[in-house]
Amino acid sequence: MNTVPSKQRHASPSREAWLASLAPLVSPGYPAEAAAALHLYLRVLDDVALEAFNRDTLEQAARCARGRHPVPTYAELRGVLDAWLREHRPVRAALPPPCNVVPESERCTPEQAAEVLRRHGCDGRRLAERGTMERGPVPVSLLTAAQLAQARRRAGIRVPAGEVRG
Description:
Helix content: 40-55%
Order of helices and strands: HHHHHHHH
Largest sheet: none
Number of strands: 0
Number of helices: 8
Structural class: mainly alpha
Shape: elongated
Distance between the termini: 79 Å
């Protein structure tokens, strides 16, 4: 019968081996007891990247053991592992800049830009000069409550309760 909880059964062999290797280093006189105590840390160390369980961190963790309680605390072990991960964080590749440039073959001619401007009524002096399909600033128009209600009626939109009806 397997008495190891399922979370620990699926723990990484690297974590288990690392903790098992740490036990005789921190408590050479009682390695089995130290191994049992360190094994309890498996569940709370499962979010630490496997790369952190290496010879360097093993040596640093062994140096944490001192005094009457030779087994390092969770905070001490986590401090060693987190420090190593901070120093050895993988370098992230920079993403290429966004490609917002419209290829020359897809750009519109000044005549096409003028036609778009004529149809859609936006200010396009810059557009015609640049030969792109960028629109100028959108004009702002404010409606009174009555104008808004009238526009909603024409569009068939019901006026929300509590709002002014025009």
